[in-house]
Amino acid sequence: MTGLPDRRELVKAAVAAPMLLAGLGREAVAAPPSSPRPPLPSDRFHYVVAGAGHNSLICAAYLAKAGYRVLVVEGQPEIGGGCKTTERLLPGFKEDWCSATHGLIASNPLVSHDELRLEQYGYEILRPDVVMHYPFGDGASFTIFRGDLERSAATIAQVSKADAETFRRMAALKSAAAAGDALAASYMKTLGQMSGYAAARQVWRSPHLQAAALAGGRFSGVSGSDFGTGSQSLSMMANLEGRPFPRGGSGMLAIALGRYIKAHGGVVLTRMPVTGLILEAGRCRGVECADGRRFRAETAVVSTLHPKHLVAMAPAALWGEAFTQQVDLMQSELGMFVVHCALTEPPRYPLASGGTMLTPEAAAMEDPASIFVPDRDAAEGELHLADYPLQVCHQSAFDPTRVPPGCGSVKVQGYVTYDLKGGPARWDEIKDQVADTVMSRYMKLTANLTPDKVLARHIVSPLDIERGNASMWRSNVHGFDKRAGGFFPYRLPISGLYQTGDCTAPGGGISGLPGRNAAEVILKDQGRSLDQVVASAT
Fold first, then answer.
1. Backbone conformation region of residue 161, classed left if phi is above 0, alpha if psi is from -120 to 50, else beta
2. How far apart are CA 451 and CA 459, in angstroms?
3. What angle do CA 72, 78, 80 make, to 5 degrees?
4. Rounded to the nearest 5°, which phi and psi values hold at 285?
5. Could you tell me if 254 and 52 are in contact, meaning their C-beta atoms sit under 8 angstroms apart?
6. Sequence ranges of the domains in the chain
7. 400-417 pLDDT, tens per residue?
């Protein structure tokens, strides 16, 4: 085990390029309540972390808390990976670049046990009572309210009284399974092993409820057409637990973690893409960046680079045939298309009973049958944009820190094929046309939006997503299609090299568990316990 640094050591200023956190400028590095530590006298670190997604930052934060000298190098101008918030539209309009909700991370001890005191560093969670609204082109709609089964069921009853009763029954069954009821657990397991399409038809009578369940269920990026996606049919039950989000944008998690790392002696460098590994005698000793700078790790390197790219950074013999074959087998999810808009006012949705609904998030579509369309398009390399299911995020309606007073913002996204006929490069030719069609469709589902309400627009095609973050291979914002398992190990075949991020268990989304799990494995290899580190006063 490499010796721990003296806690009075200084961090070398010459190493640290300006630390740019999630597009919020130098305010992002303002010192949190604990005193910041000056720079180290060496450009060597115990751990070098390649990539600054939220899992990498979580891993780095735990290692920094354990007293190790940690360097995080990130290729993009802002840290956070898919968990960042920037002002790409207009000043004062903060838009989540990718992730929006932080429900999964709530059960991570990082948050549930407040292990790193991230609220002191700017991470504050909002939990509005309105969770998800489901509008359809024929005027039908229903809404899920946090923790309120009856209020949610009452909106479903306006579409289908039978499905409202099923909603109550399935919620009870889900709770019984969680409490250890064997029959309920067996039912849930069997349902989950089915395809989402089959399970939704089995559970719900109304096409509206079937489509809504699948639309919300596929927010993870996996189509409901294949076996093992049956839990999508119960996505509305999960929404009863809420879909919380951070004040100030999803990227506040990354900002808080960056502040924590800095306060504990770590260094974060942006605009430093890792292009190679430093290998000596078959062991990983550090990383090399695009500008030729090399950073050595006395103990180990932690990667969050996508395995498809990482595997090219070392000879095949060092990885071993089993690992390279696993990389070859990786399959992609559907890609994602996103339109960000700055608005003169927040979106509102009409209600059949009269009035309008203000919600932080919506699953929108004209025709329930549209839920089945993207699979056909993925197989054919075509786009039939008349009615794709859309995930619509506008948390700014409940978080005034994200927009100027009285204004609104919206992120409209849908899963589409990356491989168009003629190749992915066609996205550059058609993305404006696609955005026009998508926004025209979406506005018809609202009560108040018209083109003149749009102050600015930013379009992100599947190709743009991959360009903006190489770890989102083929526009896979969750890493890869993991329905069959095949997660990558935290300990990689090359000595001195670890992996974290959405390609390790339990996968993509803002759970932070891959980052915490990786830190636990790394500390164990140093003869230390994560629990002991968390319990320490520093």
1. alpha
2. 15
3. 70
4. -115, 0
5. yes
6. 25-87+98-122+248-329+490-535, 148-239, 331-475
7. 999 999 999 999 998 888
